[in-house]
Inverse folding.
Protein backbone atom coordinates (compact mmCIF):
# COMPACT_ATOMS: atom_id res chain seq x y z
CA UNK A 1 0.00 0.00 0.00
CA UNK A 2 1.14 3.55 -0.80
CA UNK A 3 -0.80 6.42 0.87
CA UNK A 4 -3.73 4.08 1.25
CA UNK A 5 -3.62 2.87 -2.35
CA UNK A 6 -2.65 -0.58 -3.61
CA UNK A 7 0.29 -1.08 -5.99
CA UNK A 8 -2.23 -2.03 -8.69
CA UNK A 9 -3.98 1.31 -8.31
CA UNK A 10 -0.66 3.18 -8.34
CA UNK A 11 0.46 1.45 -11.56
CA UNK A 12 -2.90 2.03 -13.22
CA UNK A 13 -2.60 5.75 -12.47
CA UNK A 14 0.50 5.88 -14.71
CA UNK A 15 -1.50 4.85 -17.76
CA UNK A 16 -0.66 1.97 -20.10
CA UNK A 17 2.68 3.40 -21.30
CA UNK A 18 3.72 4.48 -17.82
CA UNK A 19 2.96 1.08 -16.33
CA UNK A 20 4.96 -0.59 -19.11
CA UNK A 21 7.95 1.67 -18.43
CA UNK A 22 7.76 0.90 -14.69
CA UNK A 23 7.66 -2.83 -15.46
CA UNK A 24 10.62 -2.52 -17.86
CA UNK A 25 12.60 -0.53 -15.27
CA UNK A 26 11.90 -3.12 -12.60
CA UNK A 27 12.91 -5.92 -14.97
CA UNK A 28 16.16 -4.06 -15.76
CA UNK A 29 16.94 -3.54 -12.06
CA UNK A 30 16.29 -7.20 -11.35
CA UNK A 31 18.66 -8.11 -14.20
CA UNK A 32 21.43 -5.77 -12.98
CA UNK A 33 21.13 -7.06 -9.41
CA UNK A 34 21.44 -10.66 -10.57
CA UNK A 35 18.14 -11.57 -8.93
CA UNK A 36 16.01 -11.37 -12.05
CA UNK A 37 15.94 -13.20 -15.37
CA UNK A 38 19.40 -13.13 -16.93
CA UNK A 39 19.15 -14.96 -20.24
CA UNK A 40 15.80 -14.37 -21.90
CA UNK A 41 15.37 -15.19 -25.58
CA UNK A 42 14.02 -12.57 -27.97
CA UNK A 43 10.33 -12.97 -28.91
CA UNK A 44 10.98 -14.29 -32.44
CA UNK A 45 14.40 -16.02 -32.48
CA UNK A 46 14.48 -17.30 -36.08
CA UNK A 47 13.48 -13.94 -37.59
CA UNK A 48 16.00 -12.03 -35.48
CA UNK A 49 18.84 -14.48 -36.19
CA UNK A 50 18.20 -14.47 -39.95
CA UNK A 51 18.23 -10.63 -40.09
CA UNK A 52 21.30 -10.33 -37.82
CA UNK A 53 23.36 -12.86 -39.80
CA UNK A 54 22.46 -11.37 -43.18
CA UNK A 55 23.46 -7.94 -41.88
CA UNK A 56 26.77 -8.91 -40.27
CA UNK A 57 28.06 -12.00 -42.10
CA UNK A 58 29.46 -11.88 -45.64
CA UNK A 59 30.13 -14.64 -48.16
CA UNK A 60 28.18 -17.46 -46.46
CA UNK A 61 24.64 -16.97 -47.76
CA UNK A 62 23.87 -20.71 -48.06
CA UNK A 63 25.13 -21.36 -44.53
CA UNK A 64 23.09 -18.47 -43.13
CA UNK A 65 19.97 -19.92 -44.73
CA UNK A 66 20.73 -23.39 -43.33
CA UNK A 67 21.23 -21.95 -39.83
CA UNK A 68 18.02 -19.92 -40.06
CA UNK A 69 16.05 -23.00 -41.12
CA UNK A 70 17.51 -25.04 -38.25
CA UNK A 71 16.51 -22.35 -35.76
CA UNK A 72 13.01 -22.16 -37.29
CA UNK A 73 12.63 -25.90 -36.73
CA UNK A 74 13.94 -25.58 -33.17
CA UNK A 75 11.69 -22.60 -32.50
CA UNK A 76 8.64 -24.53 -33.73
CA UNK A 77 9.41 -27.30 -31.23
CA UNK A 78 10.32 -24.74 -28.56
CA UNK A 79 6.94 -23.02 -28.72
CA UNK A 80 4.68 -26.04 -29.21
CA UNK A 81 6.20 -29.08 -27.54
CA UNK A 82 6.19 -29.74 -23.81
CA UNK A 83 9.69 -31.14 -23.91
CA UNK A 84 11.78 -29.89 -26.83
CA UNK A 85 15.33 -31.06 -27.51
CA UNK A 86 18.36 -28.78 -27.61
CA UNK A 87 19.58 -27.70 -31.03
CA UNK A 88 23.08 -28.79 -32.02
CA UNK A 89 24.94 -27.15 -34.90
CA UNK A 90 28.33 -28.38 -36.05
CA UNK A 91 29.93 -25.49 -37.96
CA UNK A 92 32.87 -26.70 -40.01
CA UNK A 93 35.13 -25.07 -42.55
CA UNK A 94 38.60 -23.66 -43.32
CA UNK A 95 40.38 -21.05 -41.22
CA UNK A 96 38.98 -17.54 -41.29
CA UNK A 97 35.62 -18.30 -42.90
CA UNK A 98 33.55 -16.92 -40.01
CA UNK A 99 32.71 -19.98 -37.86
CA UNK A 100 33.40 -18.43 -34.45
CA UNK A 101 31.97 -15.10 -35.59
CA UNK A 102 28.75 -16.86 -36.59
CA UNK A 103 28.36 -18.48 -33.17
CA UNK A 104 28.73 -15.09 -31.48
CA UNK A 105 26.26 -13.46 -33.89
CA UNK A 106 23.69 -16.20 -33.19
CA UNK A 107 24.00 -15.55 -29.46
CA UNK A 108 23.74 -11.77 -29.99
CA UNK A 109 20.52 -12.25 -31.93
CA UNK A 110 18.96 -14.83 -29.59
CA UNK A 111 19.38 -13.11 -26.23
CA UNK A 112 17.70 -9.87 -25.17
CA UNK A 113 20.53 -8.54 -23.05
CA UNK A 114 24.31 -8.27 -22.92
CA UNK A 115 26.74 -8.13 -20.03
CA UNK A 116 30.00 -6.20 -19.75
CA UNK A 117 33.10 -8.34 -19.79
CA UNK A 118 35.35 -8.06 -16.75
CA UNK A 119 38.27 -5.63 -17.24
CA UNK A 120 37.03 -4.75 -20.71
CA UNK A 121 34.85 -2.20 -22.48
CA UNK A 122 33.27 -4.98 -24.55
CA UNK A 123 29.91 -6.65 -24.00
CA UNK A 124 28.72 -10.17 -24.81
CA UNK A 125 25.30 -11.85 -24.89
CA UNK A 126 24.20 -13.00 -21.44
CA UNK A 127 23.52 -16.59 -22.50
CA UNK A 128 26.80 -17.19 -24.37
CA UNK A 129 29.39 -19.57 -22.97
CA UNK A 130 32.53 -20.37 -24.95
CA UNK A 131 34.91 -23.28 -24.45
CA UNK A 132 38.25 -22.97 -26.23
CA UNK A 133 40.05 -26.10 -27.33
CA UNK A 134 43.29 -24.40 -26.28
CA UNK A 135 42.20 -24.75 -22.63
CA UNK A 136 41.89 -28.53 -22.86
CA UNK A 137 44.94 -29.54 -24.89
CA UNK A 138 47.44 -30.40 -22.12
CA UNK A 139 47.12 -33.90 -20.70
CA UNK A 140 50.37 -33.64 -18.69
CA UNK A 141 49.03 -31.00 -16.29
CA UNK A 142 45.36 -31.98 -16.32
CA UNK A 143 44.13 -35.52 -17.00
CA UNK A 144 41.08 -36.07 -19.21
CA UNK A 145 38.80 -36.55 -16.21
CA UNK A 146 39.78 -33.15 -14.82
CA UNK A 147 39.10 -31.49 -18.18
CA UNK A 148 35.70 -33.12 -18.21
CA UNK A 149 34.92 -31.91 -14.69
CA UNK A 150 35.91 -28.35 -15.63
CA UNK A 151 33.52 -28.42 -18.56
CA UNK A 152 30.71 -29.88 -16.45
CA UNK A 153 31.14 -27.37 -13.61
CA UNK A 154 31.17 -24.37 -15.98
CA UNK A 155 28.09 -25.65 -17.78
CA UNK A 156 26.17 -26.30 -14.56
CA UNK A 157 27.03 -22.86 -13.17
CA UNK A 158 26.08 -21.15 -16.42
CA UNK A 159 22.79 -23.02 -16.87
CA UNK A 160 21.83 -22.37 -13.25
CA UNK A 161 22.32 -18.63 -13.74
CA UNK A 162 20.51 -18.65 -17.08
CA UNK A 163 17.52 -20.81 -16.16
CA UNK A 164 18.67 -23.50 -18.55
CA UNK A 165 19.07 -21.20 -21.55
CA UNK A 166 22.44 -21.03 -23.30
CA UNK A 167 24.37 -20.87 -26.53
CA UNK A 168 27.32 -23.17 -25.87
CA UNK A 169 30.28 -22.84 -28.24
CA UNK A 170 33.09 -25.40 -28.42
CA UNK A 171 35.72 -23.55 -30.44
CA UNK A 172 38.69 -25.30 -32.09
CA UNK A 173 37.66 -28.75 -30.92
CA UNK A 174 40.57 -30.24 -32.89
CA UNK A 175 42.93 -28.98 -30.16
CA UNK A 176 41.12 -30.76 -27.32
CA UNK A 177 42.82 -33.78 -25.71
CA UNK A 178 41.27 -36.96 -27.14
CA UNK A 179 38.30 -38.36 -25.15
CA UNK A 180 37.68 -35.06 -23.36
CA UNK A 181 34.64 -34.32 -25.52
CA UNK A 182 33.59 -37.91 -26.11
CA UNK A 183 30.06 -36.89 -25.31
CA UNK A 184 30.00 -34.96 -28.60
CA UNK A 185 31.20 -37.86 -30.78
CA UNK A 186 27.71 -39.27 -31.44
CA UNK A 187 26.59 -35.82 -32.54
CA UNK A 188 29.30 -35.78 -35.20
CA UNK A 189 28.69 -39.34 -36.41
CA UNK A 190 26.77 -40.52 -39.47
CA UNK A 191 23.73 -41.22 -37.30
CA UNK A 192 23.98 -37.66 -35.96
CA UNK A 193 22.38 -38.51 -32.62
CA UNK A 194 23.43 -37.36 -29.17
CA UNK A 195 22.23 -39.41 -26.21
CA UNK A 196 21.50 -37.66 -22.94
CA UNK A 197 19.48 -38.34 -19.82
CA UNK A 198 16.71 -36.26 -18.28
CA UNK A 199 14.89 -37.32 -15.12
CA UNK A 200 16.47 -40.75 -15.46
CA UNK A 201 15.05 -41.25 -18.96
CA UNK A 202 17.34 -41.75 -21.98
CA UNK A 203 16.72 -39.30 -24.81
CA UNK A 204 18.28 -38.94 -28.24
CA UNK A 205 18.87 -35.60 -29.97
CA UNK A 206 18.94 -35.20 -33.75
CA UNK A 207 22.24 -33.48 -34.60
CA UNK A 208 21.96 -33.54 -38.37
CA UNK A 209 22.27 -29.75 -38.68
CA UNK A 210 25.88 -29.69 -39.88
CA UNK A 211 26.68 -26.30 -41.43
CA UNK A 212 29.62 -26.30 -43.87
CA UNK A 213 31.47 -22.99 -44.25
CA UNK A 214 32.99 -22.63 -47.69
CA UNK A 215 36.33 -20.97 -48.48
CA UNK A 216 36.10 -17.29 -49.34
CA UNK A 217 36.77 -16.03 -52.85
CA UNK A 218 38.07 -12.52 -53.64
CA UNK A 219 34.54 -11.18 -54.20
CA UNK A 220 33.67 -12.27 -50.65
CA UNK A 221 36.80 -10.55 -49.30
CA UNK A 222 35.75 -7.33 -51.10
CA UNK A 223 32.32 -7.51 -49.44
CA UNK A 224 33.88 -8.21 -46.04
CA UNK A 225 36.23 -5.23 -46.35
CA UNK A 226 33.29 -3.00 -47.38
CA UNK A 227 31.28 -4.15 -44.36
CA UNK A 228 34.20 -3.63 -41.95
CA UNK A 229 34.89 -0.15 -43.34
CA UNK A 230 31.22 0.73 -42.83
CA UNK A 231 31.32 -0.56 -39.25
CA UNK A 232 34.60 1.29 -38.67
CA UNK A 233 32.98 4.53 -39.79
CA UNK A 234 29.93 4.04 -37.56
CA UNK A 235 32.15 3.28 -34.55
CA UNK A 236 33.99 6.61 -34.68
CA UNK A 237 31.45 8.88 -36.41
CA UNK A 238 30.88 12.00 -34.31
CA UNK A 239 33.96 11.22 -32.21
CA UNK A 240 36.91 11.36 -34.59
CA UNK A 241 35.19 12.55 -37.77
CA UNK A 242 31.86 13.72 -39.09
CA UNK A 243 31.88 11.02 -41.75
CA UNK A 244 34.37 8.60 -43.32
CA UNK A 245 33.48 8.29 -47.00
CA UNK A 246 34.90 5.23 -48.76
CA UNK A 247 34.60 5.79 -52.49
CA UNK A 248 34.06 3.01 -55.10
CA UNK A 249 37.07 0.84 -55.88
CA UNK A 250 38.76 1.13 -52.46
CA UNK A 251 37.55 -2.20 -51.06
CA UNK A 252 38.39 -4.04 -54.30
CA UNK A 253 41.86 -2.48 -54.29
CA UNK A 254 42.42 -3.54 -50.68
CA UNK A 255 41.37 -7.11 -51.48
CA UNK A 256 44.27 -7.37 -53.98
CA UNK A 257 47.04 -6.30 -51.59
CA UNK A 258 49.96 -8.63 -50.89
CA UNK A 259 48.92 -8.76 -47.23
CA UNK A 260 45.97 -10.97 -48.25
CA UNK A 261 47.15 -14.31 -49.60
CA UNK A 262 45.21 -16.41 -52.11
CA UNK A 263 45.50 -20.02 -53.21
CA UNK A 264 44.38 -21.60 -56.47
CA UNK A 265 42.42 -24.86 -56.29
CA UNK A 266 41.61 -27.20 -59.17
CA UNK A 267 38.91 -29.84 -59.43
CA UNK A 268 37.27 -31.95 -62.12
CA UNK A 269 33.48 -32.07 -62.07
CA UNK A 270 31.51 -34.03 -64.69
CA UNK A 271 34.65 -34.21 -66.81
CA UNK A 272 35.12 -30.45 -66.70
CA UNK A 273 38.12 -28.82 -65.05
CA UNK A 274 37.19 -26.07 -62.59
CA UNK A 275 39.64 -23.54 -61.19
CA UNK A 276 38.85 -21.45 -58.09
CA UNK A 277 40.96 -18.95 -56.17
CA UNK A 278 40.32 -18.70 -52.44
CA UNK A 279 41.70 -16.54 -49.64
CA UNK A 280 44.27 -18.76 -47.93
CA UNK A 281 43.39 -17.61 -44.41
CA UNK A 282 39.84 -16.46 -45.08
CA UNK A 283 38.97 -13.08 -43.62
CA UNK A 284 41.59 -13.20 -40.85
CA UNK A 285 44.13 -11.18 -42.84
CA UNK A 286 41.66 -8.34 -43.49
CA UNK A 287 42.09 -6.79 -40.03
CA UNK A 288 45.84 -7.34 -39.86
CA UNK A 289 46.46 -6.28 -43.45
CA UNK A 290 44.60 -3.47 -45.28
CA UNK A 291 42.52 -2.21 -42.34
CA UNK A 292 45.58 -2.11 -40.08
CA UNK A 293 47.43 -0.02 -42.68
CA UNK A 294 44.48 2.36 -43.14
CA UNK A 295 44.13 2.92 -39.38
CA UNK A 296 47.85 3.64 -39.13
CA UNK A 297 47.69 6.24 -41.92
CA UNK A 298 44.61 7.92 -40.46
CA UNK A 299 46.27 8.14 -37.04
CA UNK A 300 49.47 9.59 -38.48
CA UNK A 301 48.04 12.18 -40.86
CA UNK A 302 44.56 13.08 -39.57
CA UNK A 303 45.26 13.88 -35.93
CA UNK A 304 44.23 15.85 -34.00
CA UNK A 305 40.77 14.39 -34.63
CA UNK A 306 37.98 16.76 -35.53
CA UNK A 307 34.35 15.53 -35.33
CA UNK A 308 33.38 18.25 -37.85
CA UNK A 309 35.66 16.86 -40.57
CA UNK A 310 34.64 14.68 -43.49
CA UNK A 311 37.39 12.23 -44.50
CA UNK A 312 37.30 10.79 -48.01
CA UNK A 313 39.27 7.71 -49.09
CA UNK A 314 39.59 7.40 -52.88
CA UNK A 315 41.14 4.87 -55.25
CA UNK A 316 43.31 6.12 -58.13
CA UNK A 317 43.29 3.37 -60.77
CA UNK A 318 45.95 4.94 -63.00
CA UNK A 319 48.63 4.73 -60.32
CA UNK A 320 47.14 1.96 -58.11
CA UNK A 321 47.18 4.28 -55.09
CA UNK A 322 44.93 5.52 -52.32
CA UNK A 323 44.30 9.21 -51.71
CA UNK A 324 42.92 10.54 -48.43
CA UNK A 325 41.43 14.02 -48.30
CA UNK A 326 39.63 15.98 -45.58
CA UNK A 327 37.32 18.96 -45.43
CA UNK A 328 35.46 20.79 -42.70
CA UNK A 329 31.66 20.58 -42.52
CA UNK A 330 29.96 23.95 -42.78
CA UNK A 331 28.35 25.21 -39.59
CA UNK A 332 24.77 24.06 -39.28
CA UNK A 333 25.10 21.43 -42.00
CA UNK A 334 23.60 18.05 -41.18
CA UNK A 335 25.08 16.15 -44.12
CA UNK A 336 28.66 15.86 -45.41
CA UNK A 337 28.52 18.97 -47.62
CA UNK A 338 31.78 20.68 -46.78
CA UNK A 339 34.33 23.27 -47.82
CA UNK A 340 37.40 22.72 -50.00
CA UNK A 341 39.06 19.32 -49.73
CA UNK A 342 42.68 19.12 -48.54
CA UNK A 343 44.91 16.18 -49.41
CA UNK A 344 46.28 14.46 -46.29
CA UNK A 345 47.99 11.44 -47.81
CA UNK A 346 48.55 9.68 -51.12
CA UNK A 347 50.35 6.41 -51.72
CA UNK A 348 50.11 2.66 -52.18
CA UNK A 349 49.12 0.17 -49.48
CA UNK A 350 51.05 -3.07 -49.16
Amino acid sequence: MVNGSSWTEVLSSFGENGAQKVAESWDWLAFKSGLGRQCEFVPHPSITVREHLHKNLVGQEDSVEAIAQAIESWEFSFTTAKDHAPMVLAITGPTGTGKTKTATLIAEALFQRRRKLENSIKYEPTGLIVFSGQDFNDVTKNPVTEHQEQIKSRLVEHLSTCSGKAVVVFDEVQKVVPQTLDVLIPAMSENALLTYYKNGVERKVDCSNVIPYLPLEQTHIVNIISLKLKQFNELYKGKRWFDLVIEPGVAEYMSRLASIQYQSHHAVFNGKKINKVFAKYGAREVNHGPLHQLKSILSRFLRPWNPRTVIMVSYISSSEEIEITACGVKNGAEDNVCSERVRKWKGALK
The CA atoms of residues 131 and 170 lie 5 Å apart.
